[in-house]
Automatic annotation (TrEMBL):
Pfam families assigned: DJ-1_PfpI (PF01965), HTH_18 (PF12833)
Species for this entry: Tenuifilum thalassicum
UniProt superkingdom: Bacteria
Annotated keywords: DNA-binding, Transcription, Transcription regulation
Protein name as annotated: Helix-turn-helix domain-containing protein
Keyword check for tRNA processing: no
Alphabetized GO MF terms: DNA-binding transcription factor activity; sequence-specific DNA binding
Segments passing through the bilayer: none
Ranges for domain HTH araC/xylS-type: 229-327
Length: 331
């Protein structure tokens, strides 16, 4: 991936009163280092990520362990961010929501202006308060699952997931999973080489990241066709089985002709093309993070003909599976 100067990202980490400081400072440090690596690897004039801690009140806030945090800016002084990161709440979540509620309308306003948003751990509660997650998937810390479902019945909670990507809204599970989310976002914005180098340098285990297969499809989910979104998610979750047009048509009660037309209109791919791309992405991740043989991986991503898969893989990546593994393997 070639990064252009105009693409440098402005990131705001929210300074929540009495938050878990690890989920505020940790993401900031990972992005700071990744931004430096991206600068060096792409010949940029400045680090790729410009990260600030943003408060809703005073410039000094207290975290859950009593450690004060100095903030770079106030939300009233920030009119543009590319990415907002919401750290985890600590202790009594509902009490913390009341204390930090002033962020809620600002987050919603910034999202409507084009900012992407990522929540960490129980930060998903503050994000859900905006209403932006209604009808979408998210995850949070396992201990807060029941309370989350009670408060936000219109949000589809996936507690077993480490990372959930809705295209421009992200969430991750328990506190330290922020490491996986940050590496996921580094790969999405800076490319796989920067992400892997950052993970290696900071000793972050990316093998836990079960949701990292589909970052390249995020822009194809910005449409409003809910049925096609469901079909996309179904394909991504079942790529290893025989996904024929007949099966999708029958399962989702839609004619093949209408399915092709609506899918192409929403994603710019036919269903068949999308299935191929999902399988290639799944194979790429297995090549990067597992010790399975190429033949085993081909079988696990739904192909029986190795030659056919190798042709498709080269079509989308420009290299053979073995060459790709030699270049990008994390194992």
């Amino acid at each position: 991936m070639i990064i252009k100067r105009s693409e440098l990202m402005r990131v705001g980490v929210l300074a929540l009163e009495d938050c878990t400081p690890l989920t505020m400072i940790g993401p900031m440090e990972i992005l700071r280092k990744a931004g430096q690596f991206c600068q060096s690897m792409n010949g940029l004039q400045k680090p790729f990520f410009d990260v600030q801690i943003v408060s809703s009140g005073p410039k000094m806030i207290n975290t859950a362990n009593g450690y004060p945090i100095f903030c770079h800016a106030n939300i009233h002084d920030v009119d543009k961010l590319d990415l907002i990161i919401i750290p985890g709440l600590d202790g009594d979540v509902e009490k913390q929501l009341q204390i930090n509620y002033s962020f809620v309308p600002w987050i919603k306003d910034m999202y409507n202006k084009g900012s992407q948003v990522a929540s960490i751990c129980t930060g998903a509660f503050l994000l859900a308060e905006t209403g932006l997650m209604n009808g979408k998937n998210t995850t949070t810390h396992w201990i807060a699952v029941d309370l989350f479902r009670q408060r936000y019945p219109d949000v589809d909670l996936l507690p077993e997931k480490i990372i959930v990507d809705n295209g421009n809204i992200y969430s991750c599970g328990g506190a330290t999973s922020y490491q996986n989310l940050m590496i996921y976002l580094v790969e999405k914005f800076c490319g796989i080489e920067v992400a892997h180098y950052t993970a290696k340098m900071l000793l972050i285990d990316i093998n836990k990241n079960s949701q990292s297969f589909y970052s390249i499809f995020s822009t194809q989910k910005s449409h409003t066709d809910e049925l096609i979104l469901k079909i996309q998610n179904f394909i991504e979750q079942n790529y290893e089985v025989d996904l024929s047009l007949d099966l999708l048509s029958e399962y989702f009660a839609i004619s093949k002709r209408t399915l092709i037309r609506r899918f192409k209109k929403a994603t710019s791919n036919t269903p068949h093309e999308y299935i191929q791309r999902v399988r290639v992405e799944a194979a790429k991740k297995k090549l990067e993070t597992s010790n399975l043989t190429v033949s085993q991986i081909i079988n696990k991503v739904g192909y029986e003909d190795p030659l056919a898969f190798r042709k498709i893989f080269k079509k989308f990546t420009g290299s053979s599976p073995l060459d790709y593994r030699n270049k990008f393997s994390f194992t």
